[in-house]
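$ run holo --ligand "flavin-adenine dinucleotide" --emit tokens
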Amino acid sequence: MNFEYSDEQRLLSETLRKFLNTGYGFDARAKITATPAGFSEDVWAALAEMGILGVPFDEKFGGFGGTTVDMMVVMEALGEALVVEPYLATVGLGGRFVARGGAAPQQARILPALIAGKTKMAFAQTEPEARYDLARVATRATPSGDGWVLEGDKRAVLHGGCADLLVVSARTAGGDGDARGISLFLVERGAAGLAIDDARTLDNLRVADVRLSGVRVGRDALLGAEGGGLPLIEEVVDYATALVCAEAVGAIKYAHDATLDYLKTRRQFGVPIGSFQALQHRMVDVLIAYEQARSIATLACVKVDTADAAERRRVVSAAKVKIADAARHVSQEAVQLHGGMGMTEELKISHTFRRLTTIAQAFGDADHHLARFAAARASA
Amino acid sequence: MDLNYSPEETAFRDEVRAWIGANLAADVRDKVLNYRELSKDDLLGWHKKLATKGWVAPGWPKEWGGTDWTVVQRYIFEEECGAAGCPPIVPFGVRMCAPVLLRFGTDAQKQRFLPRMYNGEDFWVQGYSEPGAGSDLASLKTRAVRDGDHYVVTGQKIWTTLGHYGDWIFCLVRTDPKTEKRQDGISFLLIDMTTPGITVRPIVLLDQSREVNEVFFDEVRVPAENLVHEENKGWTVAKFLLGYERMGTGNIAVSKRELARVKELAARAGLLDDPRFADRLTRVEVELMALEITNLRFLDQLRGGRPPGAEVSLLKIKGTEIQQALTELMLQTAGPLAQAFRPLEARAGFDAFTASLMPRYCNVRKATIYAGSNEIQRNIIAKATLGL
Ligand SMILES: Cc1cc2nc3c(=O)[nH]c(=O)nc-3n(C[C@H](O)[C@H](O)[C@H](O)COP(=O)(O)OP(=O)(O)OC[C@H]3O[C@@H](n4cnc5c(N)ncnc54)[C@H](O)[C@@H]3O)c2cc1C
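-- output --
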């Protein structure tokens, strides 16, 4: 057993952090989020340049051939800096679908462009009534000519507004909630019948409502096996969940560090507030939550690469339960221990609070994953 | 012991309910129920309606417009206002500054300020906290120097809730910087916010709302007649007021309405059948049931007119924890749809209510910080009640 990052991973981390520390400070980020697009094409190009967009993809496409632990290194750094660029949507979701389920021509067409920063992707899955149930897909794909016609309503599509290419889940058979009969399709931005309504999130990302009204796609748009999309969806969503757990670890680390620093510097009653034992114990619990979060996120990132589906499900859900709890606990404590200052937009801590709030519910809240974990145990 | 309403109390409840039904404007109620921002007019408009009816300041002495209600009647009134979605009565005037004037003010001050406060003619705000003086309020530095029949005030207040609506601000200022104890040398001043030298600057909060402000004072001349109680005795006033401030932070009636709302949203999301969610919801519900009775027990003890003591700290702690737990549950009901906050382009189908749940969750984090943080409330109980 070895918990050390490799030299390569350390280098990756250092390169990325150096870039973020110099070019992605709090003020620089505020400028980016205030733009109409809500993210920076320059930053995106720089991430491509540094090879960050290619970390998990095969070398034959120009990638780095990295593991999910390599991705953990990246996500942690992005989480700490609260990066708003569509990395998770493009690399963690869209790109992962293509890499794991795409046919060779699809991979060759999409992945090099993605790695080069020219194609952004998003995953259009959630529907109005579906909550976190991945089998709740009512969007229909009806055969027509040499392809399909897509009809349906997707919500909260992460970075759907800037995506060049969407992965859309739709039913080719069965009814809403059936495990079988879901298929995945690649839909290009600008396709006739595709309406995308973009919205800002409180944590300064973007989510879109995506309506498909008679969107025509060809044979080559089908990603993976017809009707057999759910296992691939589960696999990719588990992967993205592990990544978001790693991102949370970075954000939690920031919240921990900033709060500890505040306890040492803020003075009331003539002493640093960190000298009050009531607060010391609270801070200790924050530290414990951070360490536990890091451990479980590491476990999830290791296991998504090596475990079978049942084990992967169990570990990822375990991670998400702990991460959701830690995200809530640490973000709430960080604000509370900052007093009024924690409530202002002027400090990064409030932005970290919002990001952690969203992460707590991303790809399923703690309740959802507790239930999923219990179900995995029952069937084991 | 009898925990049921008498026939008279039931009749009173019906009267209050009917009056609110006839007088609360639908658009204002919808703003309250959907967590939208209330304008100064919304707040004062409701205040004035209550004033006309004679119900705006139940706790005041009868001769100044109080209602002489029993503890149960006051409770019923709060309960009905909460359930119906009435705007809050902005507390800084009628519930905070007024008790101070009634206790410490001169006759002239009472005559001058109380009727206007009652009728909602001035919007009052609270200038206690400073950047360096939050929990440690007694370390405040804003200076007031006597110059003839004026005080000249220079310094800064922060976190002034609704300061941008403020017509008048009551402030704690330092009149003697050289005292041995920092609590000495503080005075309580009433300041007209149109006086030259005052600047109000907004602070954007966690939920991106504009609710609090910084207020800067640059040689602001305040007539000496606006001093309440004696010079350098402001700390006594300050502490007296804090008891009333904290009494208002439990918000039990509003929490009951929010609880009903959570249930409604949870039912719609199918979460009432989820044992994990149902458990957590039930725990909050029973906590609130207990707090309701604790509140009544304490109010009953205050019947004689004794100013509130350390017991209000308990109500503040529990009441605010419940408020936060409710916003957390509510946010959870929205699931993945909670993320959209503001559409880039206005559109008809945008679900603004669901979009309000995350900002609301963020906003209510303030409840355990303001009016004396919950840590400070625990310190108070430890010292005053437990003698530790
Ligand atoms: C939304 C909002 C509205 C407000 N409205 C008003 C208003 O209208 N007028 C006004 O005057 N003020 C207002 N306040 C200010 C509020 O009263 C202060 O924020 C509060 O007193 C805490 O002070 P602080 O922010 O300086 O935090 P600090 O006092 O610096 O506290 C930081 C942390 O340390 C803890 N702490 C401090 N001392 C101790 C101790 N001895 N033991 C244990 N823990 C301790 C606190 O609990 C907190 O967690 C408002 C605040 C907010 C957030």
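-- notes --
The longest strand of chain B covers residues 210-223.
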